[in-house]
Amino acid sequence: MGTTILTFPTGQPMRTHLCSSSYALLFNTLPLLTAPLSRLAMARNHSSKDSQPKVDKMQQLVHSDPSGGWEHCWEKGLTPWDLGQPTPILVDLHQRGALPKGRALVPGCGSGHDVVAIACPERFVVGLDISENAIKQATKLFSSSKSAEYFAFLEADFFTWRPTHLFDLIFDYTFFCAIEPEVRAQWASRIRDLLKPDGELITLIFPISDHEGGPPYKVSVFDYEEVLHPLGIRAESIVENHFAIPPRRGREKLGRWKRSICKSLL
């Protein structure tokens, strides 16, 4: 195991331990999404074997070129972190009418599946990503979508972007865990600045584990509370994500957060 400096999709420099198992924990997921239950164990093993070479190649690109490695990954199709479909729990919340209406933001949107999944006449969604190639792919995939007038993709750095409007909803998944723990307080400040006083932050807390190094860095509910509570943003509910794809079950919780009224008036 070695140590190097890289730039993750947040645009922030990171020191990361070269640990393949932690990458595999995050990325070895896609083949299981449609696997019949009777073939689940076989699919899990097959997934790990097939995905690891792509993870290895992705790591080589990123570590060999810290400033442009992620762009090269998108160019070469080496994106094992991309599920290729919307996050199941987000789709469920949308279908049940359990998401705030208004303006929504998905930071680190990648190829844009979550953005399009919740875009509708009652909700305009902005997908934000620092990767030019990710935004190009999202645009190519969904520019002809029937709901195209209800979403937009934007190439920008979450930590420096200054939008003209605030958001009623922010959805964060595999973004918080991508940044170094030292940057999490800055992440929380940006959430506060981008969210309306009565807006909602929805987080999928993942990966809840004890692995070392990252990204993805291990997270816990406390890690979110530690940076959000001082800003007056507290969880209204934290529950197990029963819609988690099989490899992530038991390591993922759904958190719904809102700013306390007394704090927002200071």
TrEMBL record:
CDD domains, alphabetized: AdoMet_MTases
Alphabetized Gene3D superfamilies for the sequence: Vaccinia Virus protein VP39
PROSITE patterns on file: SAM_MT_TPMT (PS51585)
GO molecular function terms listed in the Swiss-Prot or TrEMBL record: S-adenosylmethionine-dependent methyltransferase activity
InterPro entries noted in UniProt: SAM-dependent_MTases_sf, TPMT
GO biological process, one term: methylation
Keywords, sorted A to Z: Methyltransferase, Phosphoprotein, S-adenosyl-L-methionine, Transferase
Statement: the UniProt record of this protein carries the keyword Phosphoprotein: yes
Protein name: Probable thiol methyltransferase 2 isoform X1
Organism field: Nicotiana sylvestris
